[in-house]
Design brief:
mainly beta, 212 residues
Length: 212
């Protein structure tokens, strides 16, 4: 696997958008949400494993704590997800990956418990000057509820750091980076494709920083 394109632009993992590039990474995410009288804490363990530069897999499992109006407390695992991934198109400035997310009903009835499948298309674009764009588009279908949902995400990343020239006769040593500060601007959203809420659009925004 590679941490940068052939032109030396770094591959940076967005917070809420699955990347188009493969890697070998371990993530432990934590999120906090509050609204409608409900406070929710969620941690998620995610493993990304590249078998080759073009083939990989993602495995993830969340654990959730929920407090409703300071009266009822619930906690438990969410559904386990496994995501095979294949890099279909690769160039110096563009990547296109196809993924297939399968959620298994391993979670509690309060936080999951439904079999779902979601084909995903993910893209990475080099916009120049270490600006990159991560995008994804998926259709998720839950079999138990017989519901389908369109999921989408856009993430712009600006990376700041030094380029360290390596040995010219070893391509993978050229344009390595000695630490990167990454600025993130992301938007993710969903809209039901059937059911009573069909056509409603829900969008979340995120501003963040990461260092690698």
């Amino acid at each position: 696997h590679r941490h940068r394109s052939e032109g030396g632009t770094p591959y940076v993992h967005s917070f809420g958008i699955e990347p188009a590039f493969t890697g070998r990474e371990l993530f432990l995410d934590y999120s906090y949400r509050e609204g409608g009288g409900i406070t929710e804490h969620e941690t998620e363990l995610e493993i990304e494993w590249a078998f080759t530069r073009r083939l990989g897999i993602i495995m993830e499992v969340p654990y959730i704590w929920e407090d409703e109006n300071n009266v009822a407390n619930n906690s438990g695992f969410g559904d386990f997800a496994i995501v095979p991934r294949a890099l279909l198109i690769e160039s110096e400035r563009f990547l296109l990956t196809a993924q297939l997310e399968l959620a298994l009903p391993t979670g509690s009835s309060h936080f999951g418990g439904e079999t779902a499948i979601a084909p995903v298309i993910a893209m990475w674009n080099d916009l120049g000057n270490w600006w990159t764009l991560n995008t994804s588009l998926a259709i998720e279908h839950g079999f138990d509820a017989d519901s389908s949902e369109l999921l989408f995400g856009f993430g712009i990343v600006k990376s700041i750091g030094e380029k360290c020239e390596g040995h010219a006769d070893h391509d993978h040593h050229v344009h390595t980076t000695a630490g990167l500060l990454n600025l993130h601007l992301e938007a993710t959203g969903s809209t039901p494709l059937n059911g009573a809420n069909q056509g409603e659009i829900h969008i979340e925004g995120l501003i963040g920083m990461s260092y690698s």
